Amino acid sequence: MGKTASEQQLIIEGAGCASCVGKIETTLKNTHGVDRAEMNFADRTVLVSGTAETEALITAVESAGYNAKALNDSHGSDGLDEKDAADWAYYKKLIRDTVIALSLGIPLMIYSVLIGEMTVETTTQRIVWLLVGLLTLGVMYFSGRHFFVGAWNSLKNHSANMDTLIALGTGTAWVYSMLVVFIPDVFPLMARHVYFEATAMIIGLIDLGLALELKARGKTSEAIKRLIGLQAKTATVIRDNKEVHIAIDQVLLNDVIKVRPGDKVPVDGVVIEGHTSIDESMLTGEPMPVGKAQDDEVVAGTLNKSGMILFKATRVGKDTALAQIISMVKRAQNSKPPIGRLADVISSYFVPVVMIISVLSALAWLNFGPEPALAFAIVSATTVLIIACPCALGLATPMSVMVGVGKAAEAGVLIRNGEALQTASKITAMVLDKTGTITEGTPKVTDIILANASDEKPVLQLAASLESGSEHPLAMAIVESALDQDVELLKIEGFNAITGMGVEASCEGKALLFGNSKLMAKNEVGIGEYAEKAQTLAKEAKTPMYFAVDGQLTAIIAVADPIKSDSVSAIKRLQANGTRVIMLTGDNKETAAAVANKAGISEFFADVLPEEKANKVQELQEQGEEVGMTGDGINDAPALALADVGFAIGTGTDVAIESADITLMRGSLHGLADAIAVSKATLRNIKQNLFGAFVYNVAGIPFAAGALYPFFGVLLSPVIAGAAMAFSSLTVVSNANRLRLFKAKDH
């Protein structure tokens, strides 16, 4: 039997820029047993799906010239504690490296500014600069070794990355300077300039930039940390009639757990004793506590506000809703929107192109530049290599995605992948299911009009018995109405749900039919004057259903499903933002019209079968609309899957949630407007980052090559290029973190 496919996360070490991302992903995708590999350059992690062993994945990454290790998925921390510790250690190392490099670089810079040219003309100067050169070599070893190791690994793998550019730039400056020290007579007098300060300063400034970037990057994972922080560390379990305090990962299925006021719910379960109110705001964004009593579900990470309850564990460990949410958010943060893939493609060509430009720049100075041409050639080539490092370009997209997805999660909106995040910003038409989406989804029986019967109770008994086999909200309303009246349900046989029409079965030898007019027509049941009565009920926003026994219409049972208290305001928000809102329902036209009118929707389609919902979505797409579909039922799954972006109401069915791209953890449609707002803000942030990073790289190269020299006699210093390159990454990270301050408009 083959190994089951699973997801693994690796921490990547040695990835310096965006060009590394494509190489690591390609190498992993070509590894046997790997179905998908997506690297998050901002987080320096890669998510791999498939059957490949962890050792094989690590070996593959190492063969590409990088280091990798498994991110231990320890329960309760999801491996983040380990990663935070590693990041903190790396941060301290970078700060140490910065201090070492700048301790030499800054005095040399001050000397060059205050004293004058750093040239080699006398024996004394040769000895002094030889000592400085050896000290610079020490800086290159202790503070810049990771650049040179990375460059060597890339060279062995026939590729180039940021490390290649930095190693070439600083290495060239040092080698040239040492040649001037050892054999000064070979160089013209004007070219006997040493650049040790450039090497030390560039390494120091880039290390400082990496350290500051790492610290700022840590803020982007705060949403995940907050979600993980919701998880209780221990649980009070009743075993052998005794209370036992155990670690969360020791809780077993069907354990009975006690939760006192003020405690967090440790795992998912069903209340078996007691009643309380639970604060679910940390998961759903809904501020009002929710009452819980026997048979109600409770979710891990929520807070018990008042009473004490006992509940039975139904989902533990990675199966809890909170664990699934964390997994979904992490997966989305690792995924790339289409705009990010474009940046990766550009980056993969960028480094080789920069190296070519650097060589051409040097050749131009050697052949056409003034004296000392060789010195100018070295400076321009080094500056081009340093200023063009595409670090910021690689960070532009993943940084924004991480913050945007985390921000959405805090608002109770779970985004499955980066593509959905980008596409949601372009939605022009939003299709809404009616039952459970616009309405509460908990309808009540309002009317029973008898046609071929004299007593309501036997009719309700048969109808409820028949509907007890259905999971539709309308069916459940009829069953609940019967149970409220202490009506005993009867045994049914041959239950059959007829898609888009209703249900049929037999009970005590009687053939039962319950559904809409299409079902009656199909079975040749006459409804006569009762069609008009059904229409009247429908105009009151009630759903009338025909009930027939042995081929004779027996009654019309009407059910009303109230519109959610905030559906109208949420729909107005969508419309105010220019989104075309359309309602789809399998309900009859009159009921649909009444609900649409109350909800403020001008476009609706009624009597729509499940497969027709998908067709309506396709029709809108053919009209050129970017279509979002929102639903909560099994019958919505095909349309959710077909839509450009599918939104599932988190209170709905698992099938609907699995078919959707975005899940709204609370039942409110305000989540739609919030999701679209976060999506637009994130995409805007990505574009700002990409524009800033790309324009910086492209615009910086001509200046580095010496474009200003013919006009102003100025040649950009490699030190300035190093500082600019380091802080460009920091600028991108800071801009991405601005998203953390984003707030959607008030509801």
TrEMBL record:
Annotated HMA domain residues: 6-69
Bilayer topology term: Multi-pass membrane protein
Transmembrane feature ranges: 98-115, 127-144, 165-187, 349-368, 374-397, 690-709, 715-733
Matching InterPro entries: ATPase_P-typ_cyto_dom_N, ATPase_P-typ_P_site, ATPase_P-typ_TM_dom_sf, ATPase_P-typ_transduc_dom_A_sf, ATPase_P-type_domA, HAD-like_sf, HAD_sf, HMA_dom
EC number(s) recorded for this UniProt protein: 7.2.2.8
Record keywords, A-Z: ATP-binding, Cell membrane, Copper, Copper transport, Ion transport, Membrane, Metal-binding, Nucleotide-binding, Phosphoprotein, Translocase, Transmembrane, Transmembrane helix, Transport
Primary location class: membrane
CDD domains registered for this protein in UniProt: HMA, P-type_ATPase_Cu-like
Subcellular location: Cell membrane
Domain of life: Bacteria
Annotated signal peptide: none
EC main group: translocase
Family note: Belongs to the cation transport ATPase (P-type) (TC 3.A.3) family. Type IB subfamily.
PANTHER family listed in its UniProt record: ATP7, ISOFORM B, COPPER-EXPORTING P-TYPE ATPASE
Name under which the protein is recorded: Copper-exporting P-type ATPase
Organism of derivation: Salinimonas profundi
